[in-house]
Amino acid sequence: MITLDLALPDTRYPIHIGQQLLDKADLLLPHIRHRKVALISNTSVAPLYLAPLRQTLERAGVEVIPVILPDGEDFKTWETLNLIFDALLQHRCERNTTLIALGGGVIGDMVGFAAACYQRGAPFIQIPTTLLAQVDSSVGGKTAINHPLGKNMIGAFYQPRAVIADMDLLDTLPARELSAGLAEVIKYGLLGNAEFIGWLEQHIAALRNKDKTALAHAVQTSCAMKADIVSQDEKEQGVRALLNLGHTFGHAIEAGLGFGTWLHGEAVGAGMLLAAEASRLIGNLTESDVQRVRHLLELAGLPTISPDLGVETWLELMSHDKKVSGGEIRFVLLQSLGQAYVAPLPQQILHELFTGRFIEKA
Amino acid sequence: MITLDLALPDTRYPIHIGQQLLDKADLLLPHIRHRKVALISNTSVAPLYLAPLRQTLERAGVEVIPVILPDGEDFKTWETLNLIFDALLQHRCERNTTLIALGGGVIGDMVGFAAACYQRGAPFIQIPTTLLAQVDSSVGGKTAINHPLGKNMIGAFYQPRAVIADMDLLDTLPARELSAGLAEVIKYGLLGNAEFIGWLEQHIAALRNKDKTALAHAVQTSCAMKADIVSQDEKEQGVRALLNLGHTFGHAIEAGLGFGTWLHGEAVGAGMLLAAEASRLIGNLTESDVQRVRHLLELAGLPTISPDLGVETWLELMSHDKKVSGGEIRFVLLQSLGQAYVAPLPQQILHELFTGRFIEKA
Ligand SMILES: NC(=O)c1ccc[n+]([C@@H]2O[C@H](COP(=O)([O-])OP(=O)(O)OC[C@H]3O[C@@H](n4cnc5c(N)ncnc54)[C@H](O)[C@@H]3O)[C@@H](O)[C@H]2O)c1
Ligand SMILES: NC(=O)c1ccc[n+]([C@@H]2O[C@H](COP(=O)([O-])OP(=O)(O)OC[C@H]3O[C@@H](n4cnc5c(N)ncnc54)[C@H](O)[C@@H]3O)[C@@H](O)[C@H]2O)c1
Ligand SMILES: [Zn+2]
Ligand SMILES: [Zn+2]
């Protein structure tokens, strides 16, 4: 097991990365008060991993209140959040009762937001069970639910007490979900670590075969980069925005097709290719840079052609992005492979992009 | 106009107290970006004060998006909160769009929570229009909505950018609401300022007659005490709990009778008398201390006899309190008039209290 430390102005917390971590009560107990936790998962993950974790906790004398939510991005809503509040209140959970999120990014984001709001702030622990959640959503304290008019529109910056990333949990992860997680892994390379892009090109097959050593290295590299960026800018007022590479486009794809049609990671993957292409159109990247991105995404099993939403709809959907300021949409673009920055894009480039070669032809 | 300054580790903000403040654009403009605000009020307050404030803003070139919510504690719910989110998203408000709360504590708490959650945190300004909101809820950053199983159970600590307390707005406040606000004013005397208790005994008539000088003094003294306590303990981990004097009992009354039957301030008033009586029963206060509290509450036009909820129900309702820790209910008690502390109460004292002289007889 390797432990990273994420240090912020008001708090710090460990990110444990390894195998067989659900057995280790000592990773959890320092963050639990009054021997009681709410263990929150969903109908797909709970049958796989809730029992062993529960056993670890109960053996350590901790009462476990399981809360099983419906599975899916469609349920990342206030109604589902309320199921958590109902259970917490019915079981008289106090404001120092720890909530444990056992699941992918949807569970992690919802449990984090529930913890942020329950009695104005309860402690919580992230146990991410998808690659995407291990490398991205469980770290950094962004929590949210969706609104019909926009994804992740309602939420909080609220940090967990610990993150426990166990590679063994990925054994059961469907290949498509693994690929979606790889999109966020690739993102770290593209936005800030050119060397890691090379490593990924060499190890993408091992990763897709769930080689635990390769996975742990990818998770560790990703989390270390995320921790570094978040520690510089917890509330996304500057450098943290770079983590949204591919996301402004990706969110438009998700919203345009209806949440859940494409996976978040798939949309981000296609979105990163659009960001690369836009970066080429404005003169930053070469054609071979763009092809390298496209190729890596393909090796990762990700879509590279975005749906044809129509220029108007693209712009409309992106105008709801949280990075919009003064009406201007701000994009994460690439200066080179391994170096990102934030800037607006000219209308004409956007038009070219949304009618161009990486958009589906009718 | 007098301006207090509330300084916290991460932020500081002004509390302006005076008259004719809705005309003063310069109190608002420093906290508004991109010349656009959402001005949120309710069906009772908007017809009285929304137009003049809107005019002040529009004259200064600020676009105003009015959001009018239904009036009342019954509507302090997620459904109402969602009306705010709907309007913000429909009007493409960004995460730096300022929300202005124009109303009593219900509007202030909801707008504050909406601001805390909108795109993970938008700026907001409190313009409290009830005495209670001016002396208490608008200051200190506690925001929340209710859950069927408990009041203010879902919320956030989230500070406004400014508080503007205009005595003129109290002209239209019903007498019963004014009295409810006086309960929180009296609270500050009881918990930490014996001299202020004497001042209140002398000026309670002037306050009830809406003498603006007396009101401004009461608001200023109250806000200064609250600001002092909050600056020591923003997240209520210590001394801030003292501000809950009368509230553990009061919340039980509100929940026991159904939210909205008694006003919050009325319940707190009766709750403070129970806290005083409990403090006498354990030997802290004298009979004449308790009578002095009772008399001041009566002069303020507040109820002093609590409903007979039955001992079991009292305990059950109080067990949901946010100050419960390790299953133990913690009460704010008086060491003397003007000095409070937090402690549990023996079962036998609680029994005596809830069957005693300040409980309604069948
Ligand atoms: N907070 C952040 O910083 C952040 C960052 C990126 C993404 N996100 C959010 O994360 C969400 C996407 O997360 P996700 O990709 O993990 O989706 P997800 O949580 O929906 O999980 C994907 C699917 O895999 C299942 N699953 C999870 N773990 C499994 C396992 N070990 N074995 C078998 N099946 C398993 C889930 O039940 C689900 O059906 C989106 O809502 C996105 O907005 C948040
Ligand atoms: N956040 C905190 O720290 C804190 C502290 C104390 C109370 N609170 C909350 O505050 C709420 C109670 O606040 P409240 O007592 O202001 O109630 P309120 O907001 O319901 O206002 C009382 C009534 O007076 C009306 N009103 C408001 N201003 C008026 C005016 N100027 N003229 C005429 N009518 C007016 C309102 O529309 C309402 O009908 C409760 O929900 C309580 O939980 C919060
Ligand atoms: Zn993402
Ligand atoms: Zn109160």
TrEMBL record, chains A, B:
Binds 1 divalent metal cation per subunit. Can use either Co(2+) or Zn(2+). The gene is aroB. Its main location: cytoplasm. It catalyses: 7-phospho-2-dehydro-3-deoxy-D-arabino-heptonate = 3-dehydroquinate + phosphate. Residues 67-179 form the 3-dehydroquinate synthase N-terminal domain. Belongs to the sugar phosphate cyclases superfamily. Dehydroquinate synthase family. It is an enzyme of class 4 (lyase). Catalyzes the conversion of 3-deoxy-D-arabino-heptulosonate 7-phosphate (DAHP) to dehydroquinate (DHQ). It holds the Pfam family DHQS_C. Residues 181-324 form the 3-dehydroquinate synthase C-terminal domain. The keyword Transit peptide does not apply. The keyword Flavoprotein does not apply. InterPro entries: Dehydroquinate_synthase, DHQ_synth_AroB, DHQ_synth_fam, DHQS/DOIS_N, DHQS_C. Its cofactor is NAD(+); Co(2+); Zn(2+). Gene3D superfamilies: 3.40.50.1970, Dehydroquinate synthase-like - alpha domain. Pathway: Metabolic intermediate biosynthesis; chorismate biosynthesis; chorismate from D-erythrose 4-phosphate and phosphoenolpyruvate: step 2/7. NAD(+) binds at residues 71-76, 105-109, 129-130, 142, 151. This is 3-dehydroquinate synthase. It is found in: Cytoplasm. GO terms for molecular function: 3-dehydroquinate synthase activity. Zn(2+) binds at residues 184, 247, 264. SUPFAM superfamilies: Dehydroquinate synthase-like. Keywords: Amino-acid biosynthesis, Aromatic amino acid biosynthesis, Cobalt, Cytoplasm, Lyase, Metal-binding, NAD, Nucleotide-binding, Zinc. Its EC number is 4.2.3.4. CDD domains: DHQS.
